[in-house]
Write a structure and sequence with these properties.
Helix content is about 30%, strand content about 25%. The chain contains 19 helices and 28 strands. By secondary structure, the chain is α/β, with parallel strands linked by helices.
């Protein structure tokens, strides 16, 4: 008789592990059926112990141990994957089961196709490496060239390679370059596949003999291959590697643990690596696998234009003289131009011209964004309101739109260049990946075309364009977040490396240090200066932050946050309202803990956090503090 510790692989079960007894002897990583609330649920075996060794513990237990059902003839995951999920769960104060579910597509869990039992799956790999961590900072073409060589080296050692990219658009861009010459041994996985295709490809990736190149979004790291020689994470700075729903964890962190436990290399690459990675390089944790690029300029001419003179009495002109010249020149030469706008809509903010009150959503308290068609839209909850409205404070009709959105730039371009072939790529104009791909394909096929897009469009710019323009970016500088300048600089550098001839930046802050580094291409100097400022302020990576959010009725939120503050008062927490203090009528408050990194995971804090109800949102190492 054996006692099993299992993790239920079903939603809505908040217990981390459950215990059952069985006459069978399943292996760690196998699946069993277990009774929960009158239903049979698939569960993952994480521990098997003989009952004879535990009789006294069973007798004194405060719960009744039930009998498990049948052991399913499938090994779901490698033991190194399960242990990595356990370690990740502890770091992020979450549950192992929820981490595992986040790394397996729901359709795979439902059908268990691709998770076939195989002796090959449960064999251990010889520990050639003890988890070596590398970084690569270079432009896209250089990184691709390096990755191709690395993949072939791993294939020669009969090792498979997992290549993670943040979006479907990235996979489509990288796949033709990386699979060339090894097409039969390359498998691409993403949510763009139909359910049937996904099941078939997952099965192939899990069971096919010989080394494979698996190119996928990061949620397929559960594929049970023990011949893994390298895990590559490109565009490593992308926020897509952070889970924005429960469990709140960073897949890059999981990958580092998994690489070590599976004796694989980990390579993180980008045009500009996160400041945190550069700090870890200085501490000796990450090794440059090739000399880091310290300067990135490309061949384009950079122009930074001060837009302060372009403010007129009745409106802000969004088209500088230099932008009009670029559009005129490219129209004549049939060159292509990409124009970046940081905000959707016509104007991101509206204020009352009489009392100065900002027009905000009654449900969310977030600013209402003016869109074409005389319509205000809340980008948080989706509520709409007719633009023909009065100030909610003084009842004045004098509402003044402020700021520049993509629709305002579009309107001005169409007004001055009525014959221009103008396309738009943002989440209001394009709602699916397929439509986005159609827009970008048409843009590259059309000579003299202009593409106007938000940050969403950057992943789809597969090929360089003659000119790029930053139509408006100043609002990003006002966001009170310690990572915002790094984000702006990475965006600008990425745009410049996609530009063949001219890059134009329109701004009311031309003396910003970011633009100086952009002009010189000094990426290393920028990160070095940013790290100095972060160290002074005890920001990550020099501290570890834990943000705990409570959302609900105002009195309940205040009461719960006060109780939590008292429970962890010895670590001097800070309570503050969320940047968007209300969503759909529910109050939002944050509590922030700042700890030395060496103190985490902290057993006492973990015990307190594990007792919190699901009403609390716990985010370790948050992307932002707002």
């Amino acid at each position: 008789m054996n006692l099993l510790t299992v993790i239920p692989l079903a939603r809505g079960i908040f217990k981390e592990t459950l215990t059952y007894f069985t006459k069978e002897t399943p292996r760690v990583g196998q699946a069993v059926t277990v009774p929960i609330r009158g239903k049979k649920v698939i569960a993952l075996v994480v521990k098997v112990e003989p009952v004879a060794d535990l009789k006294q513990a069973i007798r004194s237990a405060s719960f009744v141990t039930k009998k498990a059902g049948n052991t399913l003839p499938r090994t779901l995951f490698t033991e190194s994957f399960i242990k990595s999920a356990e370690e990740t769960a502890q770091y992020y104060a979450g549950g192992t089961g929820s981490i595992i579910r986040a790394l397996v597509p729901e359709i795979i869990l439902q059908s268990f196709k691709g998770l076939a039992n195989s002796d090959r799956i449960i064999k251990s790999q010889e520990p050639e490496l003890a988890g070596e961590y590398y970084i690569l900072q270079a432009d896209e073409s250089e990184r691709i060239g390096f990755y191709k060589s690395l993949i072939r080296e791993e294939f020669a050692k009969k090792h498979s390679v997992y290549f993670a990219l943040p979006t479907i658009a990235d996979i489509e861009k990288f796949l033709p370059h990386l699979e060339k010459g090894i097409e039969p041994y390359t498998i691409a996985l993403s949510s763009a596949l139909s359910q049937k295709e996904l099941q078939e490809k997952y099965t192939e990736a899990a069971t096919k003999e010989g080394p494979l190149l698996i190119i996928a979004t990061p949620h397929f790291l559960s594929i049970p291959r023990v011949d893994l020689g390298a895990i590559i994470i490109d565009r490593e700075s992308s926020s897509a590697y952070r889970s924005n729903t429960r469990p709140y964890f960073d897949i890059r962190h999981f990958a580092a643990i998994y690489a070590k436990r599976s004796f694989s290399k980990l390579i993180l690459g980008d045009i500009l690596l996160r400041a945190e990675l550069i700090a870890e390089k200085e501490a000796g944790k990450f090794i440059p696998i090739a000399p880091l690029k310290t300067r990135l300029q490309g061949n384009s001419k950079l122009m930074v234009v001060d837009m302060k003179p372009y403010k007129h009495k009745h409106r802000i002109d969004t088209l500088s003289k230099e932008l009009r010249e670029i559009l005129t020149r490219n129209q004549a030469s049939l060159g292509r131009t990409f124009i970046f706008a940081s905000r959707r809509g016509v104007a991101p903010t509206t204020v009352c011209g009489d009392c100065g009150h900002e027009i905000s959503c009654k449900e969310c308290a977030s600013p209402l964004v003016l869109h074409s068609g005389h319509l205000y839209i809340c980008h948080k909850c989706g509520k709409t309101k007719d633009a023909d409205m009065r100030c909610g404070v003084c009842a004045s009709w004098k509402l003044v739109p402020l700021g520049i959105g993509i629709e305002q730039i579009e309107s001005h371009i169409r007004e001055l260049f009525p014959n221009l072939i103008l396309m738009r790529l943002d989440s209001d104009a394009v709602t699916t990946h397929k439509k986005a791909r159609e827009v970008i394909d048409l843009f590259y096929k059309t000579k003299g075309a202009v593409l106007l897009g938000t940050e969403m469009a950057l992943a789809y710019l597969d090929e360089p364009v003659e000119a790029t323009v930053v139509g408006h970016i100043d609002n990003l500088f006002t966001i009170p977040d310690f990572r915002i300048r790094e984000r702006i600089f990475r965006l600008l550098i990425s745009l410049r490396m996609k530009t063949e001839k001219y890059m134009l930046v329109q701004t009311r802050h031309p003396n910003e240090k970011v633009f100086e580094h952009l002009s010189r291409g000094t990426v290393s100097d920028f990160i070095r200066e940013d790290l100095v400022e972060r160290k002074k302020a005890f920001y990550p990576p020099f501290a570890l932050y834990i943000k705990i959010t409570r959302e609900g009725e105002k009195d309940e939120v205040n009461s719960d946050m006060s109780s939590l503050e008292k429970a962890i008062e010895e670590w001097s927490p800070t309570i503050y309202p969320a940047f968007i203090p209300r969503i759909k009528g529910r109050e939002r408050m944050h509590l922030l803990l700042r700890l030395p990194r060496a103190d985490w995971p902290h057993p006492k804090i973990l015990a307190i956090l594990s007792d919190l109800r699901p009403k609390f949102k716990i985010v370790v190492d948050p992307e932002e503090l707002l």
